[in-house]
Sugar phosphate permease
Amino acid sequence: MSAGARVGPGLYRGWWIVAAGFVCTLLAIGGTTYSFGLFVTPLSEEFGLSRADANGGFIFLLVGFAVWAPIVGRLLDRLPARSVMIGGAVLFAIGFTLIALAQSPLIMGLAVLGPVSLGTVACGALASNTLTARWFRAHRGRAMGVLAIATSAGGFVVPPLTALLMAQLGWRGALGALGLIVLVVVTLCVGLLVRDRPSDLGLEPDGAAAAASPAQAPPPERSWSTGALLRNANFWLIAWGTGILLAADQALLASMIPYGVDAGFGAQRAALLVSCLTFSAIFGKLAIGMLADRIDKRWLFTAVAACNLAFLLVLLSAPGFVPLMVACCVIGLAIGGTYPLWMTLTADCFGSTSFGAVMGTMNFVVMPFSIASIRFIGEVFDRTGRYDLAFQVFIGTAFLATALIWRVRLPRQGAGSSRQPGGRDASGAAPDRDEGPALHAEAVPGLSKE
């Protein structure tokens, strides 16, 4: 084992990779997805925009994420991750500076669609999860569970910082300062801590010593082309299953405060419901991530979907504030598990060699579900004055998502995702047997298990 393999007494270097990814994801997601709402009012006032038009910037951000993710994923598989992530931080800062200087909403929208969304994808969650998939295998669920917390933590840390900057510098100055903070912190974290692969330090994933001879080394993992991914049933099953459930979760989060206000709880207590749901989801991400190393991930996904369904039933019952707050605290523990299960299922089925490309392409499939669900729940309320129909539809989608995930063919226990044709598993097409239910390529008509 090389001298740089472990940092400190007994600490595997991969955990420092997770720490760097945590900070980068916290800043990238916290500075965009969670802080966006702070700029809606000043933009509306300065440019005379309606709230709907101002909120259109968030749609631009989501579309940008979907467009750039496949490209960034391929770059992460072909170029040094440090270069991609630092380049992303530079683009992030440039985009925020352009918005701060722009005198036209159109220029601002193009900046969000271009450098801001591209920079966020390149230095945030996609890059961090790609690195984590390379550095961990046996403890991949735990590592990705920790990393998944970063998106929620970003919602706690960055918006208050942004609000403070806005109070001191105005909204334009705050954008420039936030872009600079992200550039400096990400560059330092990535430059000091990130290394592409454990093999760079003479290690195998999880800190095992590198094999003494080629015969002892595990077989190389498969590299996936876009065409092979699109012909693979597991790709579509994971994308549709997790995408549908994540979309419902995001629609519920976006509507929880209006739901609480309409129920007569008041804005402050309604906001407390979101805080309880988000905070409990942090622990849920960590718990599900740890369990994912020990339990069939399809069963875990079923449990998460069941909790999602239970929460929807609670909402349909129009409960009082205290019962609803208890439900947010308890059921939110499991709802937070969808994201780490998405990451670990994908890594198990497709390996780490092309993880960036796989996740980037999958993001392009998943993102429209989120956009459509947020639009759908708003349309339901506008037409009926209630959210009940949307909740009922989401109950149905929870069942559909679970059914799709149970069609996923997992690699055999201990087989990983590394074997090549001649002894291939779920990542390399046509595994010879599955420890889960008997599944076949017919899970998605017309698709192969390539």
Remarks:
- The two ends are 36 Å apart (CA to CA).
- The domain at 226-443 is CATH 1.20.1250.20 (Growth Hormone; Chain: A;).
- Confidence is low (pLDDT under 50) at residues 1-8, 414-450.
- The chain has 15 helices and no strands.
